[in-house]
Amino acid sequence: MRKMIDLRSDTVTHPTPAMRRAMASAEVGDDVYGEDPTIRRLEERAASLLGREAAVFVPSGTMGNQIAVHLHTIPGSEVIGEVRTHIFNFEMGAMAALSGALPRPIQTDDGILAPEQVERAIQPKSLYRTPTRLLILENTLNLACGRVIPPARMHELVGVAKTHGIAVHLDGARIHNAAAAAGVSAAELARGCDTVMFCLSKGLAAPVGSVLAGDADTIREARRIRKLFGGGMRQAGILAAAGLVALDEMLPRLAEDHATARRLAELVAEAPHVDLDPGAVQTNIVFFRIEEEAPLRAPEAVARLRERGILANALGPDRIRMVTHYEISARDVDIAGRAMQEVMAA
Ligand code: TLP
Predict the structure, then answer these.
(1) How far apart are CA 208 and CA 8, in angstroms?
(2) Are β-strands 195-199 and 210-214 bridged in parallel, bridged antiparallel, or unpaired?
(3) What is the DSSP-derived secondary structure letter of residue 274?
(4) Where in the chain is the domain with CATH 3.90.1150.10?
(5) Which of 88, 130, 144, 238 is the most exposed, having the fewest neighbouring CB atoms within 10 Å of its CB?
(6) Atom 6, ligand 1: which residue's CA is nearest?
(7) How far apart are CA 10 and CA 199, in angstroms?
(8) Which residue intervals of the chain bear CATH 3.40.640.10?
(9) What is the model's pTM?
(10) How many A from CA of 86 to the centre of ligand 1?
């Protein structure tokens, strides 16, 4: 069977042979009793990577984010974030359903919040106003073409929140991509944030799992909320074992995915009726717009690509996303980029 070139997401990655071996031989225990040694090792390693005291292994990025929202908000309070934030757009309203929290989205051109925008979005303390409890930062920002919030800006935004006594949660689903692109450690990027979540199951290619990190008291409470949300797992060391291998195998090579994404963007930008600045591609996510006058809309273009063995995602009538990962080679992006040129020229 012909191999599909799957650019829909970095979540489609399969576990490597080393991950499968580690899973088969993982030492496990009941994690709800705190007795899974492999999960403990993963949590310690993740906490140290993020410069935090503690971490908790969770089944998904969504659960990690929602535990954080529950930790930092009260029902009827507000959460500030960029309008494209995953928590506002792709988590099924969970912050309202599970925590009674309201979003206060801020519009930006490039996805990077300015300190004065956050300052303005914080509600004055008054009997009539909704209290602001949480600032969410997402780095890289998925819907803004995987853009990196630079370390200096992260620290400024955290500073504004701290001045006003507001908690900061970093949705770092792809924080290691951001760190690799910015040339700093993930701990440096996350400095000052009260909680940080990162995914093992995206570019790091583990089959399942994310981690939420913070100080020891916060993570103790996070474990209680994880159980409340149905995320208390038992012998999940089998999954954590793959996560540990993922950190060894994938962290050192993420820049390769950024290079293939940039090359893909250069090729796609040459296709007719495509609006894309390859210079805006900083990590492994390529987003582009299909112009109004194009002979076909984004879903049709994606259907034509599929006929050629290439999978991509259409977001609405005029936007397409392609994501690179360890299973996408330089040759694959050449094929996909040229296929996009042909599809749009046909
Ligand atoms: N992102 C998925 C889709 O949900 C869009 C993808 O294919 O990119 N934060 C960010 C920034 C994410 O991109 C995602 C997943 C999550 C959180 C949620 O992670 P999971 O899927 O593990 O719940």
Answers:
(1) 17
(2) antiparallel
(3) E
(4) 253-345
(5) 130
(6) 9
(7) 11
(8) 17-249
(9) 0.97
(10) 7
Q: How far is 324 from 90, CA to CA, in rounded Å?
A: 20
Question: What's the pLDDT band for 346 if we cut at 50, 70, 90?
Answer: confident
- Residue 75 in contact with residue 101, Cβ under 8 Å? yes
Please give the pLDDT value at position 330.
98
pLDDT tens for residues 123-152?
A: 999 999 999 999 999 999 999 999 999 999
- Summarize pLDDT for 34-88 with one digit per residue, the tens: 999 999 999 999 999 999 999 999 999 999 999 999 999 999 999 999 999 999 9
Taking only the tens place, the pLDDT of each residue in 196-254 is 999 999 999 999 999 999 999 999 999 999 999 999 999 999 999 999 999 999 999 99
Q: Residue written as tokens 């293939």?
A: 260
Index of the ligand 1 atom closest to the CA of residue 63: 23
Which overall architecture, per CATH, does domain 253-345 show? Answer: Alpha-Beta Complex (3.90)
Q: Sign of the CA dihedral 82, 150, 51, 61?
A: positive
pLDDT at residue 1 in the model: 58
- For 17-249, CATH gives 3.40.640.10
Nearest in space to 94 (alpha carbons), one of 73, 112, 113: 73
| CA nearest ligand 1 atom 13, residue | 142
Question: Atom of ligand 1 at shortest distance to CA of 60?
Answer: 22
Counting every residue written for the chain, the total comes to 346
Q: Give the CA distances from residue 248 to residues 11, 201, 220, 241, in Å, rounded to whole numbers and listed in that order.
A: 18, 14, 27, 11
> Is the model's pLDDT at 24 over the cut of 80?
yes
Span from the CA of 26 to the centroid of ligand 1 (angstroms)? 27
Q: Which residues contact 253 (CB under 8 A, 6 or more apart)?
A: 326
pLDDT in tens, 253-272: 999 999 999 999 999 999 99
Residues with CB under 6 A from ligand 1: 9, 11, 60-62, 65, 86, 90, 138, 142, 171, 173, 199, 201, 210
Spacing, Cα 173 to ligand 1 middle (Å): 7
Query: Could you tell me which residues are beta bridge partners of residue 288?
Result: 320
